[in-house]
Amino acid sequence: MPKPAPSANYATPDEAEHAFYEALEHADLALLMSVWAEDEEIACIHPGGSRLVGHDAVKQAWAEILGNGPVSIRPTRRHALQSLMGAVHTLVEQVVVETREGTQVVNCYTTNVFHKGATGWHMVLHHASQAPDDIDADEHDVPDMLH
Q1: CA dist., res. 26 & res. 36, Å (int)
Q2: What parts of the sequence cross the membrane (predicted)?
Q3: What is the CA radius of gyration of the chain?
Q4: Check: CATH 3.10.450.50 for 13-133?
């Protein structure tokens, strides 16, 4: 069965990324999936998880995550590379987790890749992995530094 076309036409990769994090904050699966390209080759890797390939696998994983309610993520330290048809954003996600002991912030290094198609910019890859506890001490994580 063919996948429905994304319901949103994002004019820029920044607009698509903003909608992605907005969807997580409001546990809005429909908005979240509108950010993803309709391509069956999309991929998503959550911290410590398996690689998910294809629209159905990605949607099912996000449905399970959002089934627990909103996800509080603050995207920070964004570094963006963009060409005419593609964009790669690397950033640090500060994931706020509520536990019995209180609120914790877990940092993840994240890569979001966007492709520009006939219906605008859409995500084709989201890859997150846990970052070190003290990422501020990582001298290599300086986005504005030239090598």
Answers
A1: 17
A2: none
A3: 15
A4: yes
pLDDT tens per residue across span 77-124:
999 999 999 999 999 999 887 777 878 888 999 999 999 999 999 999
| Contact indicator for 90, 109 with CB cutoff of 8 Å | yes
CB atoms within 10 A of CB 123: 28
State the Cα–Cα distance between residues 17 and 140, nearest whole angstrom: 24
State the burial class of residue 145 (Cβ atoms within 10 Å of its Cβ: 0-12, 13-18, 19+).
Answer: exposed
Burial (CB < 10 A; 0-12, 13-18, 19+), residue 23, is buried
